[in-house]
Amino acid sequence: MYKKLFKYVFLYAVLVMIVSSTNAQRRPRTRNQNQTVKDTLPQQQNVQQNTNPVDMQKYNPYGNIPIKLAPVVGGFNDTILASLRNDGAVEKRVFKDRTPLPYEFLRADDALYTQRVWREIDIREKINLPFRYQANDDNGDQRFVSILVKAVRDELKKGNAIAFSADDDRFTTFLDSTKFERSLSGGGQCDTLPVYNLNDPTKIDSFVVSCNTQNPDDIVKIRIKEEWVFDREASRMFVRIIGIAPCKTQFAQDKKTERGVTPLFWIYYPDLRPTLARYEVYNPKNMGMSRMTWEELFEARMFSSYIIKSTLDNPLNKYIRSYVNDPIMRLLEGENIKDKIFNYEQNLWQY
Q1: Which one-letter DSSP state was computed for residue 294?
Q2: How many CB atoms lie within 10 A of CB 153?
Q3: Torsion-angle region of residue 6: left (phi > 0), alpha (psi -120 to 50) or beta?
Q4: How far is Cα of residue 132 from the mean position of the Cα atoms in its chain?
Q5: What is the pLDDT of residues 148-162, one digit of tens each?
Q6: How many angstroms separate the CA atoms of 54 and 58, rounded?
Q7: At a CB cut-off of 8 Å and minimum separation 6, what does 16 contact?
Q8: CA–CA separation, 139 vs 276, rounded Å?
């Protein structure tokens, strides 16, 4: 009896000791966990503060190597300084005050015959060399392409957009300042080129960003969209230029063979007439009472061109080059279209 009681007391004492030792072991462990949590909280906060996107330093793939923009020489960004004195023997204020004569109104009911024609002016031809006149005056560069660019930029500064996208020739999309400059720069493509150290070719001193720029001398063709209308009230044929576009030449892989041209932008010609009336055309013969303006040159048709497309017998609305492969035959097809329009007016008369 006593032996059993002693066993139970001994077992109870052993259990009490085990439970007390277990509790003693648990209390320091919880205390250490709390301390570790308290100790790690500032560290986590420091990590969160260090990884804050505002305080993080932006990643630079070029390291600490400086990046420079290549200087732009030529192109349409040259600044022309105005003369501080009268640069000539006579006053030239008359050109600044010129305004074009308004067009004669044509009624739609009187338009007996209408044909639309697209033609290109190759300024490399001798008669078209005034388009490439490389000179500077108070009103800027005298090349015709530069005159177009300056006219668009001046109107954009006033809040007026006169340039349209080259996606179509129907004047559907205006070009703002950014898109217009991108069309001049060949699409806005830029290349980053390294500049190596002369003493140690393995080291890079700097990077130079070179962007594509369009040279005015590289634009050798100008596209014109016009409409020929025979007015039965006046009994004569009228021609009205609707739009004008400078074209960029596309070359093959050899960089010599021309594959065609693409317009950079379109300008609605009636919006351009007031500007063209203030610019003087280069006159190699120096003939006439006064110099001719660009507006007078286009109205007098004093340029050489060839037809690339028309609405005459063209139900599929194709360019001549799409169905005539030989270049000489294309020119003959354009002359054929010109003769048909001319003969229509002549055949209305009896002699």
Answers
A1: H
A2: 16
A3: alpha
A4: 22
A5: 999 999 999 998 989
A6: 10
A7: none
A8: 12
Q: How far apart, in whole angstroms, are the C-alpha atoms of residue 337 and residue 314? A: 11
Predicted TM-score of the model (pTM): 0.73
The residue type of 119 is R
How big is the CA angle at 300 (ends 282 and 174), to the nearest 5 degrees?
85
Rounded Cα gap, residues 312 and 337, in angstroms? 7
Q: Label residues 80-92 b or e (16+ Cβ within 10 Å = b).
A: eeeeeeeeeeeee
* DSSP bridge partners of 263: 247
Tokens 């301390």 locate to 35
User: Taking a C-beta distance cutoff of 8 angstroms, is the pair 164, 156 a contact?
Assistant: no
Residue ranges of the alpha helices (H) in 78-176? Answer: 93-96, 144-157
Q: Which residues of the chain have pLDDT under 70?
A: 1-7, 14, 19-63, 69-75, 77-78, 94-95, 186-190, 211-212, 286-290, 351
pLDDT of res. 255: 77
> Tokens at residue 172, please?
């559907």
Residues 14-33 have pLDDT tens digits of 677 776 666 655 554 444 44
Token pair listed for 82: 């105005």
Per-residue tokens: 178: 């950014």
Residue spans of beta strands (DSSP E) within the chain: 67-69, 111-122, 136-137, 140-141, 163-164, 190-196, 204-211, 221-231, 236-251, 258-263, 266-268, 306-310
